[in-house]
Amino acid sequence: MNTLEGKVAVVAGATRGAGRAIATMLGQAGATVYVTGRSVRGNPSPMERPETIEGTAEQVTQQGGKGLPVKVDHTVEGDVKALFEKIKEEQNGQLDILINDVWGGDPLTNWDQTFWEHNLHDGLKMQKQAVHSHIITSHYGIPLMIKRGQGLVVEITDGVNYNYRGNLFYSLAKISAIHLGKAMAHDLKKHRITSVAVTPGFLRSEAVLQHFGVTEDNWQEGAKIEPHFIASETPYYIGKGIAALACDKNVFQKTGQVLSSWGLAKEYGLTDIDGNQPDWGTYFDENI
């Protein structure tokens, strides 16, 4: 396992949750990380949450990397193109790691409605934010990797299979991320660029902690509301896993695969920040 000193990463959708933690852990390994998203200080995104890309970039730098916040709406082609032009100029065209984590679909998902009852605008907007944005970002980012004949592309998804996920629009978005990882792996194989999809388990993001009225210090109390929350994990669990993946000299052997936070933790000997090693996959199979 090598450190990531001298490596350049883009974490698209790094304002909060898994994206923030992935960026931070890449920084801890020494990477220069372009932290992108829509929420900046003084001008929050429509999610109306307090986290910002500047806050994430500061965490990256505090952990030993170099965090560079860039405001980008990844559904806007011009924004994405400008981001990679900036990287071409500032990093001499170097891009080693691309994380597609743009989501924003939680407030758009109604779990109690069938697809014909569901708000169509919200459902289509979910595809724009969580699928189209990933395609646009890879379209402009991956050519930088091809020029250098190396790189790692990670699609963040939910789940390791193609099974229905309880809502047509949500399911379509998350399964699309898996297929993007697999399809890009096919096209990138001759260039020796790795493309994978990675899923967290039940994620204790900032928004989820707030939803259950708990903090990271007393998160177990949330299991009184949702029993399955007892098997949850922090965003840093998948962050550690992806950082380890990026450090692995043999990562290309995994191209085209669907990986998980718990699987990466076992393979690389990782624990969550509380010292535990959650295994959402086993828990899900045995309890849900």
Automatic annotation (TrEMBL):
PANTHER family: DEHYDROGENASE/REDUCTASE SDR FAMILY MEMBER 1, DEHYDROGENASE_REDUCTASE SDR FAMILY MEMBER 1
InterPro entries in the record: NAD(P)-bd_dom_sf, SDR_fam
Highest taxon above the source species: Bacteria
Pfam families in the record: adh_short (PF00106)
Name of the protein described by the UniProt record: NAD(P)-dependent dehydrogenase, short-chain alcohol dehydrogenase family
